Amino acid sequence: MVATLQLNQVGVRYGKQEVLSGVTTPVLKGGEVTAVIGPNAAGKSSLFRRIAGLLDGPGDIRIDDAPLKASASSVCYMPQDTSVNTVLTVYESVLLARKQGTARKVTDEDLEEVDRVLFRLQIEAIAFKGLSELSGGQRQLVSLAQVLVRDPRILLLDEPTSALDLHRQVEVLALIRSLAREREICVVLAIHDLNQVLRVADRVMVIDAGTMVSCGAVDTVITPTLLQNIYKVEGRIERCSRLCPHVIIDGPLGRA
Ligand SMILES: Nc1ncnc2c1ncn2[C@@H]1O[C@H](COP(=O)(O)OP(=O)(O)OP(=O)(O)O)[C@@H](O)[C@H]1O
To answer: pLDDT over 70 for what percent of the chain?
Structure first.
């Protein structure tokens, strides 16, 4: 069955401070990638934590047309901060993530799935390294392995490529996109690089100052007006010789 996610008037408060309010989306469908963009401190991570069930707040979150509480196990969330404090190896941590929340014994299928995910992320070579010995980029790839191995229906990725080199960014985003299609899972990812958004996303949600200011097809949302209004820069969207759209920034607003 194709996964679905829908938000209705969703908000987040920290104590008395409201940092997000009234986020309402159309039904986000499995097979699609939705990019969440917006300036620093706009509320993107808070939205992810709310959908992951880590924060309470107003509004209704429905997964596969059921309330979040009934289907929380379908959601896997990769936070922005992937720092670790553990003596586990990469392999152990990914296997533990696979078993998370269950008391059952490890099966051959679990081991095969761990191998498969490490292979797809091309991190088999570091499988038996300790997590504390990894570089920032390696740590981010392992965090990604830890969520992918759980076979999520709703995959929430908060800046999953921020520590990766360009080659890895392109590969990982292509992998995420093909996993969304293959497994019909609903992927929602926060990402700052608008050119990567143009490559990977089917839909874009823009969060600014705690509200959702638009949600729609990539080419209708990523426009010179968005660059001006949200990012305060002058820019254009142009197609390269292979007809792929690219964002070109001319400079800060008023000084281009
Ligand atoms: N645990 C917290 N307690 C209180 N306020 C918080 C907490 N976490 C975040 N905030 C505040 O909520 C607002 C939104 O933060 P959030 O991390 O959701 O933004 P973001 O859009 O993900 O930003 P960035 O792009 O910089 O990662 C900010 O003003 C931030 O200071």
So the answer is: 99
Confidence band for 83, pLDDT divided at 50, 70 and 90: confident
pLDDT, tens digit (0-9, with 9 covering 90-100), for 177-216: 999 999 999 999 999 999 999 999 999 999 999 999 999 9
Find out whether the beta carbon of 34 lies less than 6 Å from any atom of ligand 1. no
* Residue range of the domain that includes 240: 223-256
User: Does one domain contain both 232 and 164?
Assistant: no
Mutate which of 14, 49, 80 for ligand 1? The one with the most ligand atoms within 8 Å of its CB, which is 14
Ligand 1 nearest-atom number relative to CA 207: 21
Residue 46 near ligand 1, beta carbon < 6 Å: yes
15 and 106 fall within a common domain: yes
Q: How many domains does the chain divide into?
A: 2
Burial 15-54 (b: 16+ CB within 10 A, else e): eeeebbbebebeebbbbbbbbbbbeeebbbbbbbbbbbee
